[in-house]
Backbone:
């Protein structure tokens, strides 16, 4: 396999089972380190154990109490073991329904984020590809029009950050430059990640119920309208940009729906009560045949059931900071780097002439990995 490969890649190919190849696109999103421990032996990072340990311990202690009491009463607390299968079916169906619903919310949220990213990419491509060209009356682009293009591309990047923060209820980046306002205390929190991308003098309306992503979409649509009036875009092209903008807004609204629509509380109450009752009845059904072995069996069963329930709880709101949530911070940062590189290339072409992506140096260095790829 490595016989015809360049020498600089042979070491990477030989160690591919021990480390991942360096990648420039999506450098933050992809997992950087190989797994040194099997997943079955992980109990902290990414695991649900910390959220369910109390419930499992309580059921284990209760089982131990029932076994001790049964021995004190000479085996009078046992129940027929035949009741367990019927209860297990009910508990299993409820947990499957809960987890399937929660994972659908997680998967839909990720797909809607991809839709927003795709729309941002398409709009960026159209804006940068067309803004440096002469208008319909063969007039070269003016410095003000080039500045407007750069501003609107930065706004497209800011839409990604604003959507992420909006879904996390972190508002106010436009009210206090570089800060967000905590929803509970009202105190400002430093958020320097995208303050320089927002239009200067932007007056936020978060305190009046209008999200920042919706405000920023207006700037993009106004740019499309001005570009069409100036002959920068023809009619069908402007129409397609409008479609992309509508698609972006629709995906933002669907993510907002996932964030604001919780699982019905009646279902959550009943599921928790059924799990607790099943864990309370289980020791009575096992104590007669297993004696003290009933305690670890109860702990194992309840660890499994509460673990499934805990995973569903984490996936229910996939836009937060939990390890199992969507990697929104890494994804947005990767897309930001991607678009800023395109913007740098567009600036180079706008100032020196030529075509984008042509005439680049032979050696490209990846800022995130430190690897150099040389044309051969």
Residues:
């Amino acid at each position: 396999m490595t016989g015809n490969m360049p020498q600089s890649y042979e070491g990477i190919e030989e160690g591919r089972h021990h480390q991942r190849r360096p990648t420039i696109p999506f450098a933050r999103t992809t997992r950087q380190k190989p797994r040194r421990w099997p997943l079955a032996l992980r109990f902290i990072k990414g695991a649900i154990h910390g959220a369910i340990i109390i419930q499992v311990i309580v059921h284990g202690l209760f089982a131990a109490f029932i076994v001790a009491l049964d021995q004190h009463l000479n085996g009078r607390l046992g129940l027929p073991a035949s009741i367990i299968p019927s209860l297990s079916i009910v508990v299993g169906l409820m947990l499957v329904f809960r987890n399937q619903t929660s994972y659908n919310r997680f998967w839909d949220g990720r797909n809607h984020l991809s839709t927003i990213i795709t729309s941002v990419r398409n709009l960026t491509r159209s804006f940068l590809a067309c803004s440096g060209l002469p208008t319909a009356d063969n007039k070269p682009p003016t410095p003000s029009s080039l500045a407007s293009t750069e501003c609107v591309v930065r706004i497209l990047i800011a839409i990604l950050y604003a959507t992420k923060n909006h879904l996390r209820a972190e508002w106010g980046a436009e009210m206090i430059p570089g800060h967000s306002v905590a929803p509970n205390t009202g105190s400002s929190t430093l958020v320097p990640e995208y303050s320089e991308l927002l239009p200067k003098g932007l007056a936020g309306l978060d305190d009046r119920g209008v999200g920042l992503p919706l405000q920023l979409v207006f700037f993009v649509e106004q740019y499309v309208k001005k570009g069409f009036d100036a002959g920068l875009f023809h009619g069908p092209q402007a129409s397609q940009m409008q479609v992309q903008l509508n698609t972006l807004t629709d995906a933002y609204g669907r993510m907002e729906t996932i964030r604001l629509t919780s699982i019905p509380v009646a279902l959550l109450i009943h599921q928790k009560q059924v799990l607790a009752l099943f864990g309370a009845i289980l020791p009575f059904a096992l104590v007669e045949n297993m004696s003290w072995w009933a305690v670890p069996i109860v702990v194992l069963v309840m660890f499994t059931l509460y673990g499934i329930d805990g995973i569903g709880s984490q996936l229910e709101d996939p836009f937060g900071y939990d390890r199992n949530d969507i990697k929104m911070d890494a994804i947005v940062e990767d897309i930001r780097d991607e678009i800023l590189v395109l913007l740098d290339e567009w600036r180079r072409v706008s100032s020196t002439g030529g075509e984008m992506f042509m005439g680049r140096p032979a050696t490209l260095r990846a800022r995130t990995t430190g690897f150099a790829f040389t044309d051969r």
Notes: DSSP finds nine helices and four strands in the chain.
